[in-house]
Amino acid sequence: MHRFANPARFQRLAGAILPWSAGLTVLLSIVGLWFALVASPPDYQQSETVRIMYVHVPAAWMALFVYANLAVASAIGLVWKHPLADLAAKAMAPIGATFTGVCLITGALWGQPMWGTWWVWDARLTSVLILFFFYVGHIALTNAFDDPTRGTRAAAVLALVGVVNLPIVKFSVDWWNTLHQPASITRLDAPAIHPSMLTPLLLMALAFFGYYVTVLILRLRHEIVCRKLRALRLTQGMGAPAMVEQGGS
Amino acid sequence: MTRKRRRLYILVLFLLGLGTATALTLTAFQDNLVFFYSPSDIVAKADVPYERNLRLGGLVEMGSVERVSGSTEIRFRITDLQHTIPVVYSGVLPDLFREGQGVVAQGRLGRDGVFHAHELLAKHDENYMPPDVADALKRAGHPQGEADPGR
Q1: Band of pLDDT at residue A210, cut at 50, 70 and 90
Q2: Which residues fall within 8 angstroms of residue A245, CB to CB, at 6 or more apart?
Q3: Do the Cβ atoms of B125 and B144 come closer than 8 Å?
Q4: What is the pLDDT along chain B (151 residues), one digit of tens a residue?
Q5: Do B133 and A122 touch (CB under 8 A)?
Q6: What is the pTM for the complete model shown?
Q7: Does the distance separating the beta carbons of A79 and B8 come in below 8 Å?
Q8: Stretch (H or E) spanning A12
């Protein structure tokens, strides 16, 4: 695993993955949206409104998945002090926050016609809002210090505290009665969703995953370049103010 | 013990402690974390919460919906298949409101045992299927769409 954690190796590996992940994201989005909006049937209860699911559910899955990634990167950064893990955590947080935001907004748009309300303070909705606050807190804390290593460490601790929220989000619908319905896919028996509706859902989920991989690689590359520039600036010190200006931050 | 190993142990201990604390807190506040009470929950309470704001959830009992002509008032019964509480509501009904469907009503339980709701939300279950499949299941006598009354 350490072989891939070297920034130079990462850059080569990322360069090899990037065109594939970007191409697959575009392809899967087109096919997935076509299935979601055109080639799938309306629901027997919710009719056409059910199509919000094909954006809402993948966004919710990715919100949890990216947070799990963020927590692992933060733990590696804290324990093994690996610089790439710190940068990965910094690169992941805004992506995860976006997925969580999309999940909350599409959920409100879905809740209004179906449940009769944009928002309720039930355990599922509230725990997802808390997840969003953890992401926002992570972004804020990362950038809150003049010394980036202090910000990274504080944000990593926050990310690990937020891990307790992940099972709460996932199992809130089983532990307490909520307005939100329980899981349709991840259950012990067969999924409670017809194959004609499962196909667009899974295609969209893969598209979202491809988007995450693509944007993560782009953001992580950017963070590595910024880190190198900073190191250059520190070693050259006051000697090259012109270059410092060009480098920006 | 190396410094990395020590940091790892501290991290694991920290997460275990945090997880335990969270689990204990959530268990202690179990009763406050539920979004609604089922009719059985209310009946089972030693001190029945009359005239206090609460949410009551369950299924709209089949054949129980009565519309009062000339007003938006509607009367029905909420059931969890064990206990049943009559509800009076006046206002806009959510699209999914129908007999046999899950609902959550917010309001007060009167001394007469009737629940006066001022807000009504529909709750749908986790089953998704095209209408023709639902029809076929219904014809075959499959109990599709029957929400779990505990939720």
Answers
A1: very high
A2: none
A3: no
A4: 688 888 999 999 999 999 999 999 998 888 788 889 999 888 888 777 888 888 999 999 988 888 888 888 899 999 988 899 999 998 888 888 888 888 999 999 988 889 999 999 998 888 888 888 888 888 877 654 444 333 3
A5: no
A6: 0.87
A7: yes
A8: helix A7-37
Q: CA-based angle B70:B75:B81, to the nearest 5?
A: 160
Q: Where are the domains of chain A?
A: 28-41+52-179+195-242
User: Contacts of residue A178 in chain B, CB cutoff 8 Å?
Assistant: 35, 151
Q: Which of A28-42, A193-207, A229-243 has the lowest mean pLDDT?
A: A229-243
Q: Which amino acid is at A108?
A: A
Locate tokens 């953001």: which residue? A219
In our burial notation (b when 16+ CB lie closer than 10 A, e otherwise), range A167-181 reads ebbbebbebbbbbbb
Question: Which chain A residues touch B if contact means CB-CB below 8 Å?
Answer: 41-46, 50, 53, 75, 78-80, 113-117, 120-123, 160-161, 163-164, 168, 173, 175-179, 181-184, 187, 192-194, 196-197
Q: Give residue A53's pLDDT.
A: 93
Query: Six-digit token pair at A123?
Result: 């355990």
| Phi, psi dihedral angles at B55 (to 5 degrees) | -110, 135
State the DSSP code for B54. Answer: E
The DSSP string of A94-161 is: HHHHHHHHHHHHHHHHHHHHHTS-S----HHHHHHHHHHHHHHHHHHHHTS-SSHHHHHHHHHHHHHH
Token pair belonging to A184: 């349709």
Report strand pairing: B115-123 vs B73-79: unpaired
